[in-house]
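Reopening this ticket.

The earlier resolution said the output was attached, but the attachment link was broken on my side. Pasting everything inline this time so it's all in one place.
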Amino acid sequence: GLMLMRAYFADRGEERDTIVTADTAHGTNPASVTMAGYKLRKVGTDARGNLDLEDLRSKVDGRTAGLMLTNPSTLGLFDEHIVEVASIFHDAGALLYYDGANLNAVCGISRPGDMGFDIVHFNLHKTFSQPHGGGGPGGGPIAVRDRLEPFLPTPAIVREGDRFALDHERPKSIGKVRGFTGPFGVFVRAYAYIRMYGPGLREMSEAAVLNANYMLARLRDAYELPYDRLCMHEFVLSARALRREHGVSALDVAKRLMDYGFHPPTIYFPLVVPEALMIEPTETETKETLDAFVDAMLAIVREAAESPELLKEAPHDRPVRRLDEVLAAKRAVVRYGFDAHPDLAVESPAEPRQLEVQKGA
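Inline output:
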């Protein structure tokens, strides 16, 4: 999508070198901006969890190529000012790029094009059934407004009578971005999933949103809620009060959840929420499972007050107990040596390598 922006403005003879992202964005957003050769400007979040419009206006000018945004955001909140946000960029001649990471909240309910976005990429994992962990494979097809169509990658699939063909003659195209036809199996499975659901995709999103708000309603009085609003498909709580009152961190909560049989949620992200716990139930879980998870979260709050050390030493019944994450970061072991594998529990850390002087380079 960002490559399309670059080709679009180059074709118009405009020199634009900056992309704006939210401070709640996935790390992939600023990484993509850098890989595409753009400069990055980060915009803050207001007290309601929306983009801060005053901050945004100060960062959009004639050098701005566009905005890269997830909506709903990683806070699980739909931006209440998205139409005004789009106007700010379009009035400056810039484009809007929709990161479809959270499309599973809005399928059949709202359309990115109606919000003002010019480019949309679809995350086929999560929303459209494809694997995410273990390296995927992933897929990220994109859709664009008409004026950006000439710049789409080649080959383009075109209809010739009753047949389809590959069209390589696209002089303004950004060219080929993947070998052969890319992860074709991923596209076929996602397409079959969409066709199977049909209009039911809206029900999928409604269930995801309902599940998240049900859990939020049960947990909001036990944990801090940074943004007091109805959520979309996910919500973010804070363990800051537990940390302040009992010395229990979000990491401790996550590790203790493993003792209750639950894979921990994302923690410490988004970065704008201290001691963050990001919870996304999706549309697939039963009410019994949702209640069991909530009951575990509430039990952990009680344990934090009564036996904080129980949480600090969790997990208790896993094959591997709590890892030394500081040591793991300083001395990475990326392969298993069997009989020759080092016992890092008794070995002292290796001497710092000369490479460490390059930190921050």
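Reporter confirms the inline version is readable. Residues 19 and 40 are 5 Å apart (CA to CA). The chain has a mean pLDDT of 91.
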